[in-house]
Give the backbone structure.
Amino acid sequence: MTYGIGVIGVGVWGCHSLEHALLQAGDARVVAVATDASMGAANYAGSPEIVGTAYAERLGAEFRPDWQAVIDDPSVDIVSAMVCPKRKAEVILAALAAGKHVVTDKPLAFTVQEAEQIVAAEHASPGAGFMLCGYHPRPLVAHLLDAIAQGRLGEIRAASVRFHFMGGVYPGFQPTEQWRSEIPSAEMTTIGSHALVTLCHLMEQPARTVYASTRNCFYKEYEEVGAEDWAELNLEFGGHAVGHVTVGRLPYRLPREDIRIEVTGTLGYAEITDDRLTIWPGEETVSLPLDGGAILAAQFKDFYQAIETDTPTTTTFAEGLHLQRILAAAQRSVAEDRPCSV
């Protein structure tokens, strides 16, 4: 079948245009587009209606001033919810209530309560949800997860994930008070979500507690609106395993993003650096290219397969809820300077 896509939100900072990945990965067309100033801090000049209309015309779709009209359209099968986290629950809940499938960026919502409502709504809806987040589908991490599942590392006792995005903020982006008010936290959310989802896939049990700290290391404009550009989190998981996450947005550019993952088990150790995975004992080394476009396409092909076979999506809304609980506990930890329960 040809899937009809409805886009809600255009040009919101921190939200990728997932409808383009949907178009490339499956038989689909964009039917309708809606956006307005309340959808989130925008990265364009001009009125949202003018920008949204031009975007719809480019995709061969119709612009709808009322976003609910996109959801109510019977030709829309999938909603691309590209609004700021503060508006996500409203849009996603309406889409699921109408029986639509939903794709969105991380985080799933603004609060834990909203994320819980979304997961409950998905259970009651014929629609399926997919949250684009994390590095766990990347081939090297998938290979590592297979090794863990085979018991090659024994019981996992510790894991460390370091993600530093390189080369500064998005070109032309100026952090504003509006932008900061629309997300749970700054880089602890925007980059930290990727690291935390990856960490949770590597560990064998859910996170129990988190102790977090945030800092401003590089960007005065971040600090002026109360947004951190660096975060560190120490987590305790079931079975007394521990995890460590360091994330930051660095001002300089290296040939690759600064990504490093280490996993220690009772029988072995594994390390991912750039495009290489090494597993000990045996010092097995696997090198795979990090083709971001191919990885993104594979995730959306998996999404289509999931909704056609009624199987879980690559990153489910349930995982989004667990991420939201970790982020909320981390925010409390920063505010109170103590470990907090997830």
The two ends are 41 Å apart (CA to CA). The CA atoms of residues 216 and 228 lie 5 Å apart. The domain at 3-127 is CATH 3.40.50.720 (Rossmann fold). The chain has a mean pLDDT of 93.
